[in-house]
């Protein structure tokens, strides 16, 4: 099956966007194709394991089962994806708490929908760097995907958690895995914050790195106990105007998350991951084994509140669970 997808640059072009919205509905309404399927424009990250459930939902026909067909708008970072949702070039988009919650706090009418992805982040240093203690990171260059990104928020949190002043480190934007690895290999940065899949990719290319923080196994951080890394977002206006389409999307995505959690699907899932990330079968197996339990169909009010406080500051109550989380398909 072929899937439609377009880059962010094309998606936000006035002519291309106008043509798309005529065919597929608008930022406020889902379109319907000649087969009676609801058409949704979805923002996602290409070649990124964080959006793996979306890939599975398409490949396994879960969207089709809900009478939905999707067109994908590809973006490279969380801020870009949140911008597409707010700007109307997508109708549903994956996002990170740092970007979506901040936009919510600034008055944007956004609602979180399932599945909810557990935080999967690591802080690593070259194995031969001689860095063995967090205090040695003071004065060093720390790579993050983008300044002001979720990765930087995470880096600041775990540095503080381990007794290092977050302001004592210089944060350097190095992009995703494709550009992150060369920066680390060339010594342009002394450490890097990355997803688990990116770390596997770096190691598969022969660069030996030592893990100082890992949220998946609790190494030197407690964030893995509650922190979210991703969830899907929709505007309140679109959700109100298209409740069946949003519910169908959510159901399909939760089926995908359940499919990923089931190790009976490991062989098929590993092959899908390998294709998505363009990695070797061995690397895909490692990524599957470390992340296939990452996605949940729900988030509790308590967990949501902890994430709001982490992102917006202790004591923050500006994003009530009942107003900002759609629990209709949890």
From TrEMBL:
Q: Which positions make up the signal peptide? A: 1-29
Any single Pfam family the record assigns to this protein: NMT1
Spell out where the chain crosses the membrane. Answer: none
Indicate yes or no for the key word Signal: yes
Show where the Solute-binding protein family 3/N-terminal domain sits: 39-263
Q: Which PANTHER family match?
A: ALIPHATIC SULFONATES-BINDING PROTEIN-RELATED (PTHR30024)
The family assignment reads: Belongs to the bacterial solute-binding protein SsuA/TauA family.
What is the protein name for this chain?
A: NitT/TauT family transport system substrate-binding protein
Query: Which species is the source of this protein?
Result: Rhodococcus tukisamuensis
């Amino acid at each position: 099956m072929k899937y439609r997808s377009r880059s962010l640059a094309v998606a936000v072009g006035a002519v291309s966007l106008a043509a798309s919205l005529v065919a597929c509905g608008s930022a406020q309404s889902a379109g319907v194709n000649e087969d009676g399927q609801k058409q949704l424009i979805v923002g996602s990250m290409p070649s990124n394991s964080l959006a793996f459930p979306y890939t599975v939902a398409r490949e396994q026909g879960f969207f089709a089962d809900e009478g939905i067909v999707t067109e994908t708008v590809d973006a490279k970072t969380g801020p870009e994806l949140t911008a597409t949702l707010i700007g109307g070039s997508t109708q549903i988009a994956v996002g990170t708490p740092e970007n979506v919650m901040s936009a919510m706090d600034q008055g944007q009418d956004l609602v979180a929908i399932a599945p909810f992805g557990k935080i999967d982040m690591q802080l690593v240093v070259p194995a031969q760097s001689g860095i063995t203690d967090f205090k040695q990171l003071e004065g060093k260059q720390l790579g993050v995907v983008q300044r002001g990104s979720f990765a930087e928020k995470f880096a600041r949190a775990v540095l503080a958690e381990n007794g290092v002043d977050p302001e004592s480190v210089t944060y350097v934007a190095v992009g995703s895995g494709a550009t992150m690895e060369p920066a680390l290999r060339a010594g342009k940065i002394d450490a890097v914050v990355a997803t688990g899949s990116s770390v596997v990719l770096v190691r598969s290319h022969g660069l030996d790195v030592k893990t100082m923080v890992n949220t998946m196994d609790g190494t030197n951080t407690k964030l893995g106990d509650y922190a979210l890394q991703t969830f899907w977002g929709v505007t309140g206006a679109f959700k109100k105007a298209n409740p069946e389409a949003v519910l169908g999307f959510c159901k399909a995505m939760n089926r995908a998350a359940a499919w990923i959690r089931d190790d009976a699907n490991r062989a098929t899932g590993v092959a899908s991951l390998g294709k998505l990330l363009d990695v070797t079968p061995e690397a895909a197996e490692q990524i599957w084994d470390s992340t296939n339990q990452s996605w949940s169909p729900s988030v509790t009010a308590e967990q949501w509140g902890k994430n709001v406080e982490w992102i917006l500051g202790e004591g923050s109550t500006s994003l009530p669970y009942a107003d900002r989380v759609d629990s209709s398909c949890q």
